[in-house]
Design brief:
Layout lengths: L2 H11 L8 H11 L4 E4 L5 E6 L6 E7 L4 E7 L4 E7 L11 E6 L2 E8 L21 E3 L5 H7 L6 E4 L4 E2 L6 E2 L3 H17 L7 E7 L7 H6 L1
Parallel strand pairs: 3-12
Antiparallel strand pairs: 1-2, 2-12, 4-5, 4-9, 5-8, 6-7, 6-9, 7-8, 10-11
Helix pairs in contact: 1-4
Length: 221
Amino acid sequence: MDATEALLKELTEAHGVPGHEAKIRSVARRHLEPLGALEQDKIGSLICKQPGTSETPRVMLAGHLDEIGFMIKHITKEGFLKFLPLGGWFDQVLLGQRVVVKTGKGDVIGVIGAKPPHLLPPDERNKVVEKKAMYIDIGATSGEEVEAAGVRVGDPVVPLADFRVLANPKTYLSKAFDNRVGCALVIQTLQALQAESHPNTVYGVTTVMEEVGVRGATTRA
């Protein structure tokens, strides 16, 4: 695995839905600290300033830290977790996805399910199941068991997916390529510019909450 693949693996496997970017921000911080003057703004974006030979023009390179995920909105008495999407999801790709619920007690593994086809009326069996009909199953059989596992309403949820190199070694499989690839480009561009003389001031920025309104990029610009 070369340096780019190792960086992509580290960035994509870190968790960080909008508003909960602490884990992925710590990874980005470790890579950016040697590359310039680093600061964090009040909503959590990281800004790495790398001066050139001129103060202007000022150039911002931005990639967002957050990934699409979910948030727990309701716990049923049977122990199922109803959820809201954070970012855009196609309903048809969700069923069977393994997920991680990020709780105050630690990670809880689950899977997204819905009512099985043989319990549906015939006219519904060939329709795409909507998110509102889905739930996360963590293996609990009651709301009390969910509470004992540490899951609470408002907890963030991320897909469970490892970084893999595919049959063509130039292609990869993982979650969160949007936009951890952009974060990798910011890091590697600043690394390359360390050895170059350029008439600019470059800001490498890893932003937060892009998936819910481009908030970090807006405030940083």
